[in-house]
Specification:
135 residues; alpha+beta; 2 domains; eight-stranded antiparallel barrel; signal
């Protein structure tokens, strides 16, 4: 009986030690980040002609660009909240702003593809393609 209790105690200690070391080793961030640099951006709102391809730039957690193509390229700034697969861009990083207008970006081989939401409804796609310099 004592042998069984000792084995049980050792097994519990090993499992506990493994769990503790796993927590300590795996405690890093599970978030990705949209890489800084120059991009082209194009918005496709469902039922509307696609917007023209425009230059855009990511600086830190800010997406700078202009989706309309009629104003200077750097008129719009959206804050990016990093997520596991890319980021969520909105006018401000709060739940109300994200509900009003947001883009959920996911990493792709060419850059990022985003689903465009307005008031919680998917209304289009946004493509962010990495380029080496400003167009």
């Amino acid at each position: 009986m004592a042998k069984h209790a000792l084995r049980k105690w050792i097994a519990g200690a090993l499992v506990g030690a493994a769990a503790m070391s796993g927590v300590a080793v795996g405690a890093g961030s599970a978030e990705a980040k949209i890489d800084s640099g120059w991009y082209t951006i194009q918005w496709y709102e469902y039922g509307i002609l696609p917007m023209p391809v425009q230059p855009a730039k990511v600086v830190g957690n800010t997406l700078i660009g202009n989706p309309t193509g009629f104003l200077p390229w750097d008129m719009s700034r959206m804050k990016i909240r990093p997520t596991r697969h890319g980021g969520v861009a909105s006018s401000a990083p709060d739940p109300v702003s994200e509900w009003t207008l947001r883009i959920d970006f996911k990493k792709t081989p060419y850059g990022y593809k985003g689903m465009l939401f307005e008031f919680g409804v998917i209304v289009g796609d946004v493509y962010l393609r990495k380029v080496h310099k400003k167009h």
